[in-house]
From TrEMBL:
GO terms for biological process: cell division. It comes from Vicia faba (Broad bean). Gene3D superfamilies: Dynamin, middle domain, P-loop containing nucleotide triphosphate hydrolases. This is Dynamin-related protein 1C. The keyword Isomerase does not apply. Residues 4-251 form the Dynamin GTPase domain.
Amino acid sequence: MATMTSLIGLINKIQRACTVLGDHGGEGLSLWEALPSVAVVGGQSSGKSSVLESVVGRDFLPRGSGIVTRRPLVLQLHKTENGQEYAEFLHLPRKRFTDFAAVRKEIADETDRITGKSKQISNHPIHLSIYSPNVVNLTLIDLPGLTKVAVEGQQESIVQDIENMVRLYVEKPNCIILAISPANQDIATSDAIKIAKEVDPSGERTFGVVTKLDLMDKGTNAVEVLEGRQYRLQHPWVGIVNRSQADINKNVDMIAARRKEREYFETSPEYGHLAHKMGSEYLAKLLSQHLEQVIRQKIPSIIALINKTIDDLNAELDRIGRPIAVDSGAQLYTILEMCRAFDKVFKEHLDGGRPGGDRIYGVFDHQLPAALKKLPFDRHLSLKNVQKIVTEADGYQPHLIAPEQGYRRLIEGSISYFKGPAEASVDAVHFVLKELVRKSVAETEELRRFPTLSHDIATAANEALDRFRDESKKTVMRLVDMESSYLTADFFRKIHLEPEKNSNGPPNSNRNAPPNTDNFTDNHLRKIGSNVSAYINMVCDTLKNTIPKAVVYCQVREAKRSLLNYFYIQVGKKEKDRLGAMLDEDPALMERRNQIAKRLELYKQARDDIDSVAWK
């Protein structure tokens, strides 16, 4: 079986490590909270500070009137075998205090650093470790004294604020309550007993301490309380005789005060029969023994919490990513893995697994048809413009049968209008694809830890999309130009036959009549405009189908197939230091990983240490 010293000392060590790593609060029950400790509770001027100093064997706490303890003091006692005696503060980790008057001053200064020199309180604890051969291994938490009224300079809420702070500690199931009550006060009105009874009605976590026994009125004593007859607890009451003010003024050391306390109980006619279980030395041993017993009882639940936390920390490390190896092969592999993860998300957006790809269909189904409808064909094929273009096309020599050149110029001019909607469709799809790249980078969980790589991938993807857009524009422009470069012959044959088909007389009745070449009637101009409009509608229907095909082929298809191909080539040529620069992580994320790694190491070490000593 492990010795008390080794087990409690180990718990102290783990608690201190938890404090250093900030693992002493937050959501759920932390390891620090799961490890048992002793909270010292009492009203103002109940003698709390004197009890602590008696247990430690040193005069080290600030003194004064009113609220002196304005921040919780987490006091870890470590028994040493080499005779050395010193103190260390968590906020001054590299400084040892051998002068305990300096410890007192540092506690006061550190309190003022948070609360100012006012009489306000703070729940931000001060952590102090004392190493001495005159102590037992123990963790004590000195809390602000409970009070009933606010004094001048304090907020009206101070009474409730202190009580809430005390409850925050004593309500925890692993907290042992050291309830301090002065003997010259009715135990029924004790602030400490009142709050202990509320949070620990069975009394199994509460130790009662009666102070100032030597200051009771003559003819009165606290025997009934100490024997548990006035108020029963599951654990024995302990009486304490604090140093008198005269002793404090004379700087009587605590070791001499302990000796004087023992003499008081051994020679007291009222308490002589209880002398063997009275005094600060007995209290320290009693608490240490009980703490060791509680620790043993809690070991299974502590180990279970440690194992659960180890699993949670490993899961979080997996989520934010493990550290990257330093060799170039591993770095290149990581970069390619990140690219594949991004590419997967991007394709899900296009193929419908994630939102966004449907906007491309919206360009073809709504935006392109709407743009085609708005083209100014009515103006281009107005009577005046048709006459102008046909006339200009003939030059000095009028046409003989049908104004073929006029038709061609009207058709070519009309077809040129299709270039605007074609280019707009390319640009609209390009905008959607760039937005999907941005979303995909943001939604790729693996990339969040690498801001530089995220930027490089986004830049490479956008550059590729620019190249796809340029090729797509060339292709849709070719589609429009192809419609101009070769007109459908059947269209002209149909126009040539229409006058014969529409003639009122016999088919050959006007064969020898001279053609009317002086001018075109309005009806004839309307007929030309109508014929061109019919041809343009046919071309419009064709382009309405072929433009989306070209855009998808040149932009969407290529984005799915080869968005990062050029990036892969460039990455493969990079040197090791450039690969490392691409995997430069967010400093906050790196710090978070380091903290998780440290906590993980702490929990694993704590589990191994507890296993190594708990069952020997």
